[in-house]
Specification:
There is one protein chain. With about 290 residues, this protein is α/β, with parallel strands linked by helices. Helix content is about 45%, strand content about 15%. The protein has helices spanning about 1-15, 35-40, 45-55, 65-75, 75-80, 105-120, 140-155, 165-175, 190-200, 225-230, 245-250, 250-260, 265-280; strands at about 25-30, 55-60, 85-90, 125-130, 155-160, 180, 205, 215, 220, 235. It has an 8-stranded parallel beta sheet. It is globular, with a radius of gyration of 20 Å.
């Protein structure tokens, strides 16, 4: 009797075994290399080592000020050795004071035009942002409107930390813009509202750092979000959002968390969200 019992126990345990973590390349589509990092405990070698050991093969770099992004873009030998491609974005913030006023500050618009004309050692800028709108009505500010239109004209992606109301307002300025919704609604817009916006705006993509309700229990995907990712496998990206140095300290843990829930998805879907969607957006070669 013991052999059938052992076999049944083995089958039961096998049924409880979690899916293997995703093991392929990662595209970090929301990375900051701010002055408190590069002037403090995280010099270039440190941050590249963190990317390399976590299989991060490309990054969207946007930093306060833009010097951090330009440092990454200028480090061709080091980034190639680490196997990391830098996709540079123009950030709107010269300092923390710009967070609350950029949408009506004409000097911000001038700065963006100047940076875009200058480019980087890694090539032209590929996007604008991340920017924040703490009041969605400010999406109608004069600079916000002009930047959305400039991004659409130059085929730049826009990384925006906004609520769902502001998504509608920003897209009204430039319906053809490629908008990356940072955190896919950090305020917790319901999955049904996210789905409605994805349906409404075919060029809208969601970046998933800090997304409330994304995972449940031991880091697995919550059911409604798993269903959403399966329905729109080409519309989501992952990111670290290293906005403070603590996020750099826990970079390994953040990437392990992504690999854990990506393993809940079919391999082809996991690969799209982890790498292909970002690589296709910015025309990068498969590693």
């Amino acid at each position: 009797m013991w052999r059938p019992l052992v076999l049944l126990c083995g089958l039961a345990l096998a049924g409880q075994t979690q899916a293997a973590d995703y093991s392929g390349p990662l595209f970090d589509a929301h990375l900051h290399y701010n002055e408190e990092a590069y002037q403090g405990p995280h010099p270039l070698d440190d941050v590249l080592a963190r990317m390399q050991r976590n299989g991060v093969r490309a990054i969207v770099a946007n930093s306060r000020p833009n010097d951090g992004t330009k440092t990454l873009a200028s480090a061709g030998a080091q980034t190639r050795a680490a196997g990391v491609t830098v996709v540079p974005f123009i950030r709107l913030y010269r300092n923390r004071a710009d967070y609350d006023n950029w949408f009506r500050d004409e000097t911000i618009y001038t700065m963006v035009l100047t940076e875009f004309a200058r480019g980087t050692a890694a090539g032209p800028y590929r996007g604008i942002g991340e920017f924040h709108l703490y009041d969605s009505a400010n999406a109608n500010g004069p600079v916000a409107k002009k930047l959305m239109q400039f991004a659409a004209e130059k085929q730049l992606a826009v990384l925006a930390h906004v609520d769902d109301v502001a998504i509608d307002l920003l897209m009204a300025h430039a319906p053809g813009a490629r908008l990356i919704w940072a955190h896919t609604g950090i305020g917790g817009a319901p999955a049904a509202r996210v789905q409605a916006l994805l349906d409404k705006y075919p060029r809208l993509m969601g970046e998933l750092s800090y997304r409330p309700g994304l995972t449940c229990g031991e880091g697995s995907l919550c059911p409604e979000w798993r269903a959403l990712l399966l329905k729109y496998p080409d519309r989501f990206l992952i990111g670290s959002d290293t906005w403070v140095n603590q996020r750099w300290m826990y970079y390994d843990e953040l990437m392990r968390g992504y690999r854990r829930w990506l393993g809940d998805l079919p391999p082809e879907v996991a690969r799209r969200i982890a790498w292909d969607n970002g690589a296709n957006l910015f025309q990068l070669n498969r590693p």
